[in-house]
Amino acid sequence: IYNASNPDQPTFLSQFTHVRTCDPVIADGDYAYVTLRGGGFCGGFTNQLDIINLKDLLHPVPVRSYPLSGPQGLSKDGYLLFICDGRDGLKLFNAGDPYNLSLLSQVKGFQPTDVIALGGIAIVTAKDGLYCIDYSDVNNAKIASKIPVIQNN
Predict the structure, then answer these.
(1) What is the per-residue pLDDT for 103?
(2) In terms of CB atoms within 10 Å, which of 5, 35, 48, 109 comes out highest?
(3) Do 50 and 62 meet the contact criterion of CB atoms below 8 Å apart?
(4) How much of the chain is in helix, strand and coil states, percent to nearest 5?
């Protein structure tokens, strides 16, 4: 955790150490959300979401861990937390209470790797293309469109 009040010279404040895996992180208010994915080139064996309390930036505290299948990218839009969870697709959680996440919906049929969500639409990358996910009804998120990507080997 760095103090970036002077963007040209950020200063170290503290750190939170965990198992070494691939670990995208987002912060929102008093909490950080970290997806841990094992089995790849990053090492590790854990597949989970860790939530860290950042109210005291000098002393980050773990809140809770949630098991996942193969998480990668994540995003937040208000109380909604989006997690790309490998073969399990894109998961939308109610993260209004970080101590008690609840799954609202899940979009299956593709393997998402990263997500940017805002205002009812999520742009999601996957190996086979770019997906537009409509989550205007958070309990019934669905693929609205896809732009296929052809890979040349």
Answers:
(1) 98
(2) 35
(3) yes
(4) 5, 50, 45
Token pair, residue 91, equals 């998961």
SS3 63: strand
- Give 19-26 contacts, CB < 8 A, sequence gap 24+: 19/44, 19/45, 19/46, 20/44, 21/45, 21/46, 22/72, 24/72, 24/73, 24/74, 24/114, 26/74, 26/75, 26/76
| Cα R_g (the chain), whole angstroms | 16
Rounded to two decimals, the pTM is 0.90
Return the closest-CA partner of residue 140 out of 92, 97, 96, 98.
92
Pairwise CA distance, residues 134 & 107, whole Å = 10
DSSP SS3 for 87: helix
Chain position carrying tokens 């809770």 = 64
Residues 6+ apart with CB under 8 A from 97: none
pLDDT per position as a tens digit, 41-72: 666 678 899 999 999 999 999 999 999 999 99
